[in-house]
Amino acid sequence: MHDCISIHDGQARVQIGNACWELYCLEHGIQPDGQRPSDKTIGGGDDSFNAFFSETGAGKHVPWAVFVDLGPTGIDEVCTGTSRQLFHPEELITDKEDAANNCACGHYTMGKEIVDLVLDRIHKLADQCTGLQGFFVFPQLWCRNWLGVHLPADEIALF
């Protein structure tokens, strides 16, 4: 199986990611709590969704995803939203305050403080994959995101 890890950093990308995962679940018959009823055979038993979800021993499907936001607003929306039971809490990373749309703060100070934690969580997810194919990193439109700036090129390859 080819697994893909999604990385959502920053409030807007966390919000977009939350909506995307709700859609992925709808498309593949996965409920907001990660369960997939046995009578759901979307696409004639197609299991391609396993590239985006890991299945626990209890049959729960958990996204191969890391959500990161310096401020708690975006992550709080995920934690209190419809799909709050879908994500593993260790993959929802937040800090005390956001960079207030200041790329320099996100890059040089606040983002620098949690980048090791983010890398650790990404490495843990990658280690759990049976065949890591790549990463989905959702870019920011007007300045480079802090995560992309701090990750060494050999740490993440964009496919």
**Uncertain runs with pLDDT below 50, 5 residues or more?**
144-159
What value does the average pLDDT take? 81
Top-tier CATH class: Alpha Beta
Name given to the CATH homologous superfamily: Tubulin/FtsZ, GTPase domain
Approximate helicity band? 25-40%
What is the domain total for the residues? 1
Which structural class do the helices and strands define?
alpha/beta
- In terms of DSSP E residues, the strand content is 15-25%
Number of extended strands: 6
Name the helix and strand elements from N-terminus to C-terminus, one letter apiece.
EHEEEHEHEH
Rounded Rg: 16 Å
In summary, what is this structure?
The protein has one domain (3-150): Rossmann fold (3-Layer(aba) Sandwich). The chain is 36% helix and 17% strand. It has helices at residues 11-28, 72-80, 103-128, 146-150; strands spanning 3-9, 53-55, 61-63, 65-69, 92-94, 132-137.
Describe the structure.
The chain has 159 residues and is of the alpha/beta class. The protein has a single domain (3-150), classed as Tubulin/FtsZ, GTPase domain (Rossmann fold, 3-Layer(aba) Sandwich), CATH 3.40.50.1440. 36% of the residues lie in helices and 17% in strands. It has helices at residues 11-28, 72-80, 103-128, 146-150; strands at residues 3-9, 53-55, 61-63, 65-69, 92-94, 132-137. The strands form 2 sheets. It has a 4-stranded parallel sheet, sandwiched between helices. Strand 4, helix 2 and strand 5 form a beta-alpha-beta unit. Helix 1 runs parallel beside helix 2 (72-80).
